[in-house]
Amino acid sequence: MVSLVDGVANSTQNHEDKLVTNATAAFKSAMSAFESLSEFLRHNSSPTIPVEGSADAKMSRLGVPLAIDAIEPLSPTLRYSELFPPLPHSSLGGSRVLTGKKVSGVAPPPILIQIRFGLSSKWPTDLRAMGAAKTAMLIQLANGIESMKHASDFDGPINVTPSYMDVGYKGYLWRITVRADPELNMLRKLQQPSPEAISLLRVLTRDHVVSATHHSMIHAMNTAHPSSSSVVRLAKRWTAAHLLSDLIPFEAIELLVAKVYTNRDVPLDSPTTVVSGFLRFLFLLASHNWKRYPLIVDPHDHLSEDDHSDVVAQFEQARGPEFKNGPPMFIVTPNDRVGTSDGDEAGKSNKTPSMWSPTFTQQDPETVVLSRAASLAKRSYDFLVNALCSNKRVDWSAIFHETASSFKSYSALLRIDSDFVVDRECSSTGSDLHLAKNDDGILESSWTRSMRQRSLGPKALRRKVYRNLNAGDENAVMEWRPVEEMVQTMRTKFGSLALFFYNDLTPEVVCVLFRPTSFVPRSFSAMSSEYVLPIKAENWKSDSLVIHNTSDVLREMSQYTRDIVANVKIFDDPTEKKRPSSFQSTRKRRADSDGEDANQFSSNDSDSS
User: What is the pTM of this model?
Assistant: First the structure.
């Protein structure tokens, strides 16, 4: 099972091969580049160059008006949690590719970091001006880096947006954001904040403050417990294999694993192996009563008994008397404290309880997603325990695959064109996950095979290196994520009507599950008449005249899936259930036919794998 998250050791490998066969080596390479980038930014942002015409004024080599005080990592790659850490690319300052070999035309995923400038009174006091000042800082930083490219390891284009900057350094793509503490303080001190200001404060606190403390906490856990990193990455692969990508936040997976390794409420020591850690992750996800109890993750015992009581009380208040309200997965850490616990005004101490709110699970997962994840976790846990207790040889890889019958539980399947599937090793419908020898007779793991496929990128964008023309000199395509962008767009556009399940590691199919509550007959309204049709015949009611039309919804979806989705299979049409029986019998015959297509879909994928 460890072969899904790491490679097979081989002492004869060169540096490039070692990055795709040793996860630790890949992480250390990225972290070494981060340390070098941090030192470059700190050193060259300090004012050391005298300004002509002034005796005291000095400027920095990068030209930024304030020195960079701190560079903080935020990416899972820099805390040992990324399943497939990015590899250096030749067009971003990495080593050159040998003649005759192919290089990917797609840049690796960006590594997110944030910079903090030193304290200064030069920051504007207006929120709009503050946003413009942060963008101006990024533009000046980009200009400074561009002017120093010849004497550093920067390469490739530098792209600046209003909220971040992308730059290539030592083969990696770095996404740099600016954390401005004066902006956060300004938002907190507003007496009557507008809804926009409240939303902005929540987003900035999550992206810059809580994310940074979360990163430090998970990094400390992965450092103290070496197997926890592999458990996090194995859990990520498990959730993706069951089409739950992006439906359960990755930070929530990390917090579940952190609970497993730091839980002092159970008479068990911390796991020391990947298998035991993964089993306890599955058990926690399946057995915790998410409806009636919060999950408090406190690795370093920062919370007092009063804090625990406050969390439970506020959880019960959010749930309501029938335990139906609030976030379905209520995970709280010491980083999720809202406000202060002690107030002191005019010399009078006023003890007030802290407010607690889950940062990463406030919106996701939804109840149906959490219920499905818990059910799958129980089945996977029982399967593995039975396999370990029996003397029979059992294929453990079954828990990382979906069965053909499971696809029939969805309303529709959108099959992705094979040209957009880069890595087939992580397929949900069948692939050989065991160790196997490559063409050179060297034993390779499933993780190594995935890393090799991802390093080459999509076939249509691969470039061959010639002696007189190095493909690394050409700029790589940034942010090539067509399927992910398509799914995100459909979730934004049609999220109120359906849920979208897919495997972001091998996006062969997108499964659509229509929400039953969205297809309840209702009165006609001109303001909400999109995708509706009248109810016919005996189902006509005076107070429920229209219902959402799945044909219109799917037709509108096709505008966003064009050239990406190869074909569509429909298993369950909620609209048909509201029509006369003659329509339903016709629909049943179509569903039976599509059921055969689902079996063929799974078997074909197994054969191709």
Answer: 0.89
